[in-house]
Amino acid sequence: MNKTLRQILLIGFLTLLLTQIGYSQSIDKFTDSSIKVDSLNVPTDLKQPYFPKEMFPEVELDWIKTDKGTKIESKVKEGTYDEFVVNWYSNHLHAMKEPLLFNRKIDKEIYRFTWLRTFDKPMTFRFEKINDRYILYWKVLSGAGGYEPGKIEIEQLKILTEKEWTKFTQLVAKADFWKMELGRSSIGTDGSEWIMEGVNQTDYRVVSVWSPGKGNFYNACDYLISLTNLKISEKDKY
Fold first, then answer.
1. CA 4 to CA 153: how far, in whole Å?
2. Quick check: 79 pLDDT over 80?
3. Residue 204: is it exposed, middle or buried by C-beta count within 10 angstroms (0-12/13-18/19+)?
4. Which of 2, 54, 59, 86 has the smallest number of CB atoms closer than 10 Å to its CB?
C-alpha cells in the first residue's frame, strides 16, 4: 500500500454515510456505447473506470471542536467523485480481466462480489443467471488488495443449481442490497473492502462496505465464497 493510501486510511475507523438520494439506479442512466470493450465486455482501456463515477462521490471531513472534545462530520461533495477509490478498485478488476457491468443492457442477472483484503490476495466472485442456467465464476490474483494486484492465479467456474441461486438471492434480499447506500459507505485502517455489484435488465447498483465482520451483507458475500473450492479460514475473512 502506498503512502497516499496509508494517509487516507489513517483517518481511521470512521463511518462515512454517503447519502446519495437522487442518483438513479436505472441502467439507462449509465449505458454508454462509446466505452471500448472486447467481445466479453472487458474494457480495452486500462484507464476505464469499472463503476459509474456518480456512485463514488468525494467525502469532505470537518473536525469540529465541542465542549466534549472534537467530533468529525462528513458530507458528500456534490458533483465530484472519489477518483482514488474508483481507480483503486478498478485497477484490481482490470488485472482480473473482468467485464464491465454497467455500460450496456443485458438479458441476464449478475451479482459480483470483489474482495480486496489489504494483505491478502484479491478475489472476485461473479454469479450469473442466464435463463435457467446458473454459473459462478471466481478469480484470484497473486498480489494483495491494498498493494499491487498482481496477475491471475486462479480462474474457475462452476455450474450451480436454481436452489443455490435462490438461497443467494434470499441473502441479498435480507441485506436489502438494492436499497443500501450507494458507493463506499465506510472506511477504516487496513481491513478489507467488500464491494458488491448487481445488475439486471433494468437496474445497476454498487455498494462497498469496509470489513463487515458479520450481518446480512457479510452472509451474502460469504455464501459465494462457500460455493467455490477455495479454502479460506474464518480468521482470514476480514
1. 27
2. no
3. buried
4. 2
| Residues 116, 86 contacting (CB under 8 angstroms) | no
Q: Is the pTM of this model over 0.90?
A: no
Nearest by Cα to 128 from 231, 30, 224: 224
Sign of the C-alpha dihedral computed for residues 94, 95, 101 and 107 taken in this order: positive
**Cα distance between residue 205 and residue 196, in whole Å:** 8
Task: Identify the CA nearest to 235 among candidates 192, 200, 196.
Answer: 192
- The C-alpha cell at 72 is 468529525
Reported as a single tens digit per residue, the pLDDT across 12-50 is 433 333 333 334 489 999 999 999 999 999 999 999 999
Cβ–Cβ under 8 Å, residues 47 and 97: no
- Indicate the pairing of strand 183-184 with strand 192-199: unpaired
For the beta carbon of residue 24, count every other beta carbon within 10 angstroms: 11
Angle between helices 162-174 and 216-226 (to 10 degrees): 160
Q: Is 70 helix (H, G, I), strand (E, B) or coil?
A: strand
